[in-house]
Amino acid sequence: MSYTTEELHKIDQEYYLPTFKRYPLAFKKGKGSRLWDMEGNEYIDALAGIAVNNIGHGHPKLVKAIADQAQNLIHISNFYVSEPQMVLAKKLSELSGLKRVFFGNSGAEAVEGAIKIARKYASKNGRGGTIINMKNAFHGRTMATIAATGKKAMMNGFDPIPEGFCHVPFNEIDLVKEKVNQDVAGIMLEPIQGEGGIIPAEAEFLKKLRAFCDQENIALIFDEVQCGIGRTGKMFAFEYYGVEPDIMTLAKGLGGGVPIGAVLASEKVGGAIDWGDHGTTFGGNPLVCAAALATLEVIEEEGLLEKTIANGQWFREQVMKATADYPEIEGIRGEGLMLGVVLSVESKPIVATMMKHKVLANATAGNIVRIVPPLNISKDDLQVVLDVLFQSIKENRK
Ligand code: PLP
User: Fold this and answer.
1) CATH number for the 5-55+303-395 domain, one of 3.40.50.300, 3.30.420.40, 3.40.630.10, 3.90.1150.10?
2) Sheet holding 100-104, edge to edge
3) What confidence tens digit (pLDDT) does each residue in 21-63 have?
4) Cis before residue 200, ω within 30 degrees of 0?
5) Ligand 1 in contact with 107 (CB < 6 A)?
6) How far apart are CA 394 and CA 398, in angstroms?
7) Which fold would CATH assign to domain 61-301?
8) Hey, whose CA ends up nearest to atom 13 of ligand 1?
9) Which of 109, 134, 136, 139 should be mutated for ligand 1, with most atoms under 8 A from CB?
10) CB-ligand 1 contact for 225 (6 Å cutoff)
């Protein structure tokens, strides 16, 4: 197989469902925080497959774990247990303090699981199943998760949309309280909103939510699909706040690039799930769990949490220092290497110019350049990301 980028894009246009507005690129190989396209051009990856490749591309430990596991056993169904699935379940439970674990294949599926657990717990307590979500959230593209996300543009044409979701402004505790009644099963939010523009929750808001959910006996659900697994410099973003959820979703960074999602729940809330309530064919098969275990081990062994905090702090400082020369930069948000550079101008053209300079980043929420590189990216590569960001801002001046 040796197609050119152009040939691949022609096939895309002819055969693929036209859901993605793709950049005119096709990649063939990756190593660490570098990618190479079909023609051999080298890129620095500050996107990491949208906050997925947390230990970079082609990490030898991850590659070996996948190859070794594939030699032995790829899939067996959930009629049986396997060593990778059980060891991973125990590890995530110990890391998070949430006792019960269930594996699926994606972030959206993890969120679906979270909704089901919260509703089952509520129904056992004689409550309804409404989930309160935040405005500007993102929870996925399945039917229930577009309803949970609540964006009109994502729901258009897909009626009937599942019921039982309502939305309140982020960080407004009084407006949450106003919505809660016997119909409400839980409150779901991203501790740091990702697609919405890297917007962290306020600590007071999360603390008050925790107390309120305890008082009402409803589930507090944290969607850590994007901000979990070391992305913020803590294994889970909730650690920044000292507020533990009843249910938490993970995906993206968990498998180092293989598709795996997880929903975790406390014994109290997760215990509402009975035999036969939920299931999956692929979820948590030995192959993806071996990959996830290797990913977690690399994060621990290579001190990537500490590195992420230090590099994130350094990156923020460099951006803030540059505001005098680049008045387009209004600030920078986020934690660790989940960063959003806030611009006074549209971010899409700037990200397109960065790509021309061989740095991959992402434009989100209109004016945000999202920087979510591998957690083991070098300082030198981060410096190039910064230089190219500044250069691209300059080149887009009218
Ligand atoms: N939840 C959050 C916070 C996300 O950022 C995403 C994806 O961007 C999802 C859920 C959905 O994950 P997936 O695309 O794996 O279904």
Assistant:
1) 3.90.1150.10
2) 100-104, 261-265, 247-250, 219-223, 184-189, 130-134, 165-168
3) 999 999 999 999 999 999 999 999 999 999 999 999 999 999 9
4) no
5) yes
6) 9
7) Aspartate Aminotransferase; domain 2 (3.40.640)
8) 107
9) 139
10) yes
